[in-house]
């Protein structure tokens, strides 16, 4: 099994430790992981702004970078969903389709493909889990509170394997954090208010850390926490699962 | 071209591919022994009052206790035997502006939501169950079905000129989501369920 | 009456104003979340809930695919029932038809129960201009009418108003005690005030929740009983409906009435579900079928299923953006996510901001009782608006630049090395030198000493 590691642009630039944790975790699980050096972005910022056409270059590059892998894995539900739903490559449609059917967000890759049953990780803290909307409502990583359907959570299943980690409950377990891509600046006031409310829910339940599968949500929440001079930190789920958070 | 033709032409031109109506779908129902308790729960949750009585006479006796003068009550069910009976259809509902109590036949009840079907055929004027201060409904227990699907299966295909499902007293929560019973219609809805009819 | 308080502005700006009073915004958010939670409780009592949604969606799909036939069938049956049927191609014609009926009867004042269609057509303003006094009888609508505002929510028209504000309005207009704000007291005052209007109005306008092709009748749902009080006491009843409100058979009501109130307020059914089939003796019953852009929307393959909407408002209650920006920030008769996918069909230029007033979180789609893929349509509207030139040029330019940069790994790496370029690439940041909207209320992430790629080349690639 040959795995291509897709590291979203902002993770590459701002959160290399998340990418390192993802790579190390996959390698610890015995996988042959490759990181295509010419990767950049999934194209979502342009597409979500109404300009899919300006994402075509990104799409072509993405297909070129990842068509050769059995699986493509990424520590970002949002970018994975975007590729799954919107990757277009007119010149290489079969390759694009292959990628769309073989791309996985890290947690679902661990639970569904690798089907791991335990992990060597310890995180002795109170942790609030923030599910990203694209991860949940898009990729169905966990059950959506709106539906009348059985509850489940793939990230929750994984976090339960981590020793001494205490998962705190939330009042609104799957409310959006307000990042929303370019929404975070074009609708700054609402975006920040949503973020503040999300942070407050975690703080109210004594979270020491807020974790999640999407660094974009966490970057937004971190920005608010820092501005509030809160001691609460954000940590990507890959860092916890890898046992590498320092 | 008339607007009618214009609209229909444009609809015809633009409509998406038709799919057949969903057929033969079975929805879970409220089973027979659960119907009465479910109905009572639904109707009371909506702010209504439920009394289970053996016969019409008992309803009359209870009404006498609740509303001591028969002139206060417009009764459309002779067997209840209390209150004043309308002799004819009422052309102008306005004359009922100060009516305190109306006693009205419910011809069907729905367990899942406490709704009771009132048909214009059983009332002297359409506004009666709305304009009164207290609405008294009389419903045979045997006429309680599980869900709305069953209700529509029973209602006549040629609907009465007017009919309404009533599920409690009139209400509003428009001011700060505070529930207030008694908006424009009755402030009290009281259903007497007849056990033996 | 004109809506003086609503200054036309884009959603983001209006939302920023709304959020200046944070305590009030919190209250607004909680009030709507409370309804979302009631909706959740109600739906979870129906084990078949998801099957009901799917069935409703399919029925509506069938309706839209046969809409012309159902409209004709409905018209024929309604005429046979003695209902006078009118067709209006647009809002202006609808208003004209209504005014004509009013004038034919020499009527000066009328009562109206809730109808989002008449809001969409701005009927009240039109009638007022023509000297007709319209009294909205839904409590929430009466409140916003007295405040000279449009409804901020399709089901809860004055959800943005605090009880003290309602108290003040009622003090001025209905003579309630100064400072009184108890909802029960205010509701009783409105009851007495409107009771007099019901008893003295010869004409009543209502909306329509469902019109049944097979029987030629229509159903109106209320909790207050105001539609019935108005219609039954008036000599003339005019019901106004969008052409998409048709359903094939009465039995379909079983599906829709189970979904509607549970989705809207968490009630198992509205207090009143009134089935009008024939006018009462001595009464006249009119029904106005209104297109107003619907037949155009029907032809948009990505958007036509927005016409499945039954106006329950569930998507509005669950929308985290709506809850924190208020209904008026949407500057369209129908606010929230559903409004944001309906409004561009009416006027792309005016409503180009609305599909962007969303994080695309998808909660709207999940609560929708007829399974409209609202968040996907928001995304698709953005593409249409981008293509048609309704997205601001600055945004377009920055996206074009960003797209080229990200398509080129070398340029991307050079840009990345030059500091926080990635953040600067976000639209608004690059073009707004005066202020960085990210950093206004948020800290920027601290730049690490190296990118992952650099780390990878140093630590991994050499071992390969």
From TrEMBL, chain A:
Residues annotated as transmembrane: none
**Pfam families xref list:** CCG
Assigned GO CC terms:
cytosol
Q: Which InterPro entries match?
A: Cys_rich_dom (IPR004017)
Q: Name one GO molecular function term.
A: oxidoreductase activity
Q: Where is the Cysteine-rich domain?
A: 3-83, 127-221
Protein name (Swiss-Prot/TrEMBL): (Fe-S)-binding protein
Automatic annotation (TrEMBL), chain B:
Q: What superkingdom heads the lineage? A: Bacteria
Q: Quote the InterPro entries the UniProt record gives.
A: FTHF_cligase-like_sf (IPR024185), LUD_dom (IPR003741), NagB/RpiA_transferase-like (IPR037171)
Indicate the transmembrane segments per the record.
none
Using the record's annotation, list all stretches that form the LUD domain.
31-194
SUPFAM superfamilies the record matches: NagB/RpiA/CoA transferase-like
Name used for this protein in its record? LUD domain-containing protein
UniProtKB/TrEMBL annotation, chain C:
Sorted alphabetically, which SUPFAM superfamilies does this protein's record hold?
alpha-helical ferredoxin, NagB/RpiA/CoA transferase-like
Please state every residue range assigned to the domain named 4Fe-4S ferredoxin-type. Answer: 300-329
Q: What is this protein called?
A: Lactate utilization protein
What highest taxon heads this organism's lineage? Bacteria
Gene Ontology annotations of biological process type: lactate metabolic process
Lineage of origin: Bacteria, Pseudomonadati, Bacteroidota, Cytophagia, Cytophagales
MF terms in GO: 4 iron, 4 sulfur cluster binding; metal ion binding
Keyword Phosphoprotein carried by entry: no
Coiled-coil intervals, chain numbering: none
Entry keywords, A to Z:
4Fe-4S, Electron transport, Iron, Iron-sulfur, Metal-binding, Repeat, Transport
- UniProt region (Disordered), positions on chain: 437-464
Species of origin: Adhaeribacter rhizoryzae
């Amino acid at each position: 099994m040959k795995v291509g590691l897709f590291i979203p642009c902002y993770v590459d630039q701002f959160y290399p430790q998340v990418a390192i944790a993802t790579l190390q975790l996959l390698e610890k699980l015995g996988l042959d992981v490759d990181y295509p050096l010419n990767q950049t972005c999934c194209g979502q910022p342009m597409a979500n702004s109404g300009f899919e056409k300006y994402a075509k270059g990104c799409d072509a590059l993405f297909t070129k970078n990842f068509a050769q892998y059995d699986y493509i894995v990424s520590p970002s539900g949002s970018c994975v969903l975007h590729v799954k739903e919107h990757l277009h490559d007119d010149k290489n449609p079969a390759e694009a389709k292959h990628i769309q059917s073989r791309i996985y967000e890290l947690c679902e890759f661990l639970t569904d493909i690798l089907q791991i049953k335990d992990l060597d990780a310890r995180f002795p803290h109170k942790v609030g889990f923030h599910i990203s909307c694209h991860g949940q409502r898009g990729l169905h990583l966990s059950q959506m509170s709106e539906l009348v359907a059985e509850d489940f959570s793939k990230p929750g299943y994984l976090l339960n394997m981590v020793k001494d980690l205490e998962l705190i409950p939330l009042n609104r377990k799957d409310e959006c954090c307000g990042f929303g891509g370019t929404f975070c600046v074009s609708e700054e006031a609402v975006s920040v208010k949503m973020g503040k409310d999300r942070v407050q829910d975690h703080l109210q339940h004594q979270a020491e850390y807020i974790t999640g599968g999407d660094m974009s949500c966490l970057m937004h929440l971190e920005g608010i926490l820092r501005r509030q001079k809160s001691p609460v930190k954000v940590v990507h789920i890959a860092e916890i699962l890898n046992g590498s958070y320092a | 071209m008339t607007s009618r033709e214009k609209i229909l032409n444009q609809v015809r031109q633009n409509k998406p591919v038709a799919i057949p109506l969903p057929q033969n779908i079975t929805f879970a129902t409220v089973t027979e022994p659960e119907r009465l308790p479910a109905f009572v729960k639904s109707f009371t949750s909506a702010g209504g009052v439920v009394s289970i009585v053996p016969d019409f006479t008992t309803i009359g006796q209870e009404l006498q206790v609740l509303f001591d003068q028969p002139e206060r009550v417009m009764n459309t069910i002779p067997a209840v035997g209390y209150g004043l009976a309308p002799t004819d259809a009422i052309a102008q509902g306005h004359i009922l502006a100060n009516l305190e109590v109306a006693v009205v036949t419910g011809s069907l009840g729905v367990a899942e939501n406490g709704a009771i079907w009132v048909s214009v055929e059983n009332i002297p004027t359409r506004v009666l169950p709305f304009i009164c201060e207290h609405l008294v409904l009389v419903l045979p227990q045997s006429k309680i079905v599980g869900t709305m699907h069953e209700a529509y299966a029973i209602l006549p295909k040629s609907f009465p000129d007017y009919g309404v499902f009533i599920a409690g007293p009139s209400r509003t929560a428009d001011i700060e989501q505070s529930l207030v019973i008694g908006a424009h219609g009755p402030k009290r809805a009281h259903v007497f369920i007849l056990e033996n009819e | 009456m004109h809506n003086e308080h609503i200054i036309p502005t884009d959603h983001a700006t209006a939302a920023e104003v709304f959020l200046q009073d944070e305590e009030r915004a919190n209250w607004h958010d909680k009030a709507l979340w409370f309804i979302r939670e009631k909706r959740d409780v109600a739906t979870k009592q129906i084990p078949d809930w998801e099957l009901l949604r799917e069935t409703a969606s399919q029925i509506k799909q069938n309706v839209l695919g046969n809409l012309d036939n159902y409209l004709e069938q409905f018209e024929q049956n309604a005429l046979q029932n003695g209902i006078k049927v009118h067709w209006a191609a647009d809002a202006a014609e609808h208003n004209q038809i209504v005014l004509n009926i009013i004038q034919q009867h020499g009527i000066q004042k009328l009562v109206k129960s809730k109808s989002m269609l008449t809001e969409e057509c701005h009927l009240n303003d039109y009638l007022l201009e023509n000297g007709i006094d319209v009294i909205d009888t839904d409590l929430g609508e009466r409140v916003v009418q007295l405040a000279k505002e449009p409804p901020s929510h399709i089901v809860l028209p004055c959800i943005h108003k605090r009880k003290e504000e309602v108290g003040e309005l009622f003090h001025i207009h209905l003579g309630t005690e100064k400072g009184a704000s108890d909802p029960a007291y205010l509701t009783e005052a409105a009851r007495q005030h409107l009771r007099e209007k019901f008893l003295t109005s010869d004409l009543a306008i209502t909306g329509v929740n469902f019109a049944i092709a097979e029987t030629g009748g229509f159903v109106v749902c209320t909790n207050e009983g105001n539609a019935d009080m108005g219609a039954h006491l008036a000599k003339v009843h005019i019901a106004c409906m969008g052409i998409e409100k048709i359903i094939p058979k009465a039995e379909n009501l079983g599906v829709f009435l189970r979904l509607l109130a549970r989705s809207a307020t968490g009630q198992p059914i509205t207090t009143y579900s009134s089935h009008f089939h024939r006018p009462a003796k001595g009464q006249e019953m009119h029904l106005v079928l209104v297109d107003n852009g619907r037949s155009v929307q029907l032809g948009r393959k990505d958007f036509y299923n927005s016409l499945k909407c039954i106006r329950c408002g569930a998507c509005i209650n669950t929308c985290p953006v709506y809850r924190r920006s208020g209904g008026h920030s949407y500057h369209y008769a129908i606010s929230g996510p559903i409004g944001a996918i309906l409004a561009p069909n009416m006027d792309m230029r005016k409503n180009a901001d609305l599909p962007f007033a969303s994080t695309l979180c998808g909660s709207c789609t999940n609560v929708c009782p007829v399974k409209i893929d609202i968040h996907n349509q928001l995304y698709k509207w953005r593409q249409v608006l981008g293509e048609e030139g309704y997205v601001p040029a600055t945004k377009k330019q920055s996206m074009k630049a960003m797209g080229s940069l990200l398509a080129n790994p070398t340029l991307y790496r050079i840009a990345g090395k030059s500091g926080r370029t990635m953040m600067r690439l976000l639209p608004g940041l690059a073009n707004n030198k005066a202020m960085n909207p990210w950093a206004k209320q948020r800290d920027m992430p601290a730049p690490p000493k190296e990118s992952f790629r650099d780390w990878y080349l140093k630590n991994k690639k050499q071992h390969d």
